[in-house]
Design brief:
The chain is of the alpha/beta class and 375 residues long. It has helices spanning 2-10, 29-42, 61-71, 86-95, 116-124, 147-160, 180-186, 197-204, 231-244, 251-276, 282-305, 314-345, 348-369; strands spanning 19-25, 48-54, 75-79, 101-104, 130-134, 176-179, 211-215. Bound molecules: guanosine-5'-diphosphate-alpha-D-mannose (GDD) and manganese (II) ion.
């Protein structure tokens, strides 16, 4: 036993690591080397490592990182295959580290790496649990943002306040440091959707955290492009829903249900069109409307609800067929339960609604298993 301890100690060649910097990357090949250079300069005097988490960049980022990390022990990489998502990437990188303090910074040089030592010291020396870079405090600014983006950021920030257990001036910030055990404590409750890992962290933490805030100016991107798209807003709403009603119902069920309601409108529109414009017999018109509505529901759920397991190409068509089958069974369940309730209570509305609910829940559960099975 003693022998083992001694052996292990003699294997330590360098001072222990103090800080791990997690860097999510998606097509950032032009930014990796300048970032590492800046990190090296900013973090002089701190024992640090960097863990890059790459989600299948196609511009040579992972190849470049492989070459760099073969020469520089401070640099490591996690390559995720068939996965997407800034928050989950950051969490996986952080969980791969064993340093007492973990920092997160974007790869694209828009975050000011020169405040990293302050963030680190706020935790390592001053006893804080979380230290964030903020654009909304003294010394901070949003840089060259236009009025539109500013407004959206402010709105998102105010929407966040009910779910934050810790007051933060900039919960949307992607530049922060956290004590490792604090992250581990929150990890089981993280929603892991979308972009807003810091907000997720303070909402998932079981208690308020001791925080330091340090101002910084958000820079302008020099190389590569932003990955922020229309989905970011939707993912943000998903995060807020998951942190509020998520304890009671899965957010995916809410999305599935909302799309289902739209599907009913599509059904009625198609039915009306088929009857009045095409002059079809009711049974044909109804059949057409059913197929149309199912296709609509499939396409929207594939695009939004199951974006994380989105089916493309041939898989899209296979998924559509399986969705038709799932929904056909759902229709049987719907009619069966509806008839049972009708026999018992004789109320057509109650019977209709009960059938619809059971059928929809079946569709949700079964399509989650079959159509959008986790790979
Ligand atoms: N691994 C991985 N997977 N990395 C990603 C993904 C992904 O799906 N999406 C984006 N990234 C990486 C980018 O390569 C970049 O290094 C960083 O995450 C930020 O992405 P940007 O697309 O540049 O985001 P942004 O500049 O609009 O927003 C950033 O800054 C805001 C302010 O701090 C993000 O960090 C936001 O979360 C933050 O609010
Ligand atoms: Mn950016």
């Amino acid at each position: 036993m003693l022998q083992q301890t001694v052996d292990r100690r003699s294997a330590v060649h360098e001072a222990p690591l103090e800080l791990c910097v997690v860097v999510p990357t998606l097509n950032e090949v032009g930014n990796v080397e300048p970032l590492l250079e800046k990190l090296g300069a900013a973090l002089a005097g701190i024992e640090w490592e960097a863990i890059f988490v790459d989600d299948g960049s196609t511009d040579g980022t992972p190849e470049l990182l492989t070459t760099i990390s073969q020469a520089d022990r401070r640099v490591r990489m996690i390559r995720r295959v068939g996965r997407r998502g800034l928050s989950s990437a950051v969490v996986e990188g952080a969980l791969a580290s064993t340093t007492p303090v973990i920092a997160v910074i974007d790869a694209d040089l828009q975050h000011d790496e020169s405040i990293l030592p302050d963030l680190f010291r706020a935790i390592a020396r001053d006893g804080k649990e979380l230290a964030i870079g903020t654009r909304y405090r003294a010394g901070g600014s949003t840089g060259e943002w236009d009025a539109g983006r500013l407004k959206i950021s402010r709105l998102a920030t105010s929407l966040a306040s009910p779910i934050m257990k810790t007051r933060l001036s900039d919960p949307m910030s992607g530049l922060f440091a956290v004590r490792r055990d604090v992250l581990l404590e929150a990890a089981p409750n993280l929603s892991n959707v979308g972009y807003k890992i810091l907000l997720d962290l303070v909402a998932s933490s079981p208690r308020p955290l001791a925080v330091a805030e340090i101002g910084y100016t958000f820079g302008t991107r020099q190389s590569g492009t932003s990955k922020l798209d229309g989905m970011v807003a939707l993912e943000y709403i998903e995060l807020l829903l998951d942190k509020t009603i998520g304890r009671f119902v899965p957010v995916k069920l809410v999305q599935f249900g909302a799309i289902g309601v739209l599907g009913v409108a599509v059904h009625l529109t198609l039915l009306d069109g088929a009857l009045s414009l095409l002059g079809l017999a009711f049974s044909y018109a109804q059949a057409m409307a059913v197929v149309g509505a199912m296709t609509f529901n499939f396409a929207l759920n594939n695009r939004f609800t199951y974006r994380d397991r989105q089916l493309k190409g041939a898989a899209w068509f296979r998924g559509l067929i399986s969705f038709y089958l799932v929904c056909s069974l759902g229709a049987f369940a719907n009619v069966g339960i509806g008839s049972l309730v009708y026999e018992q209570f004789h109320g057509w509305a109650l019977a209709g609604i009960s059938g619809a609910i059971v059928g929809s829940v079946w569709n949700y559960v079964a399509s989650g298993w079959i159509t959008w099975a986790r790979r």
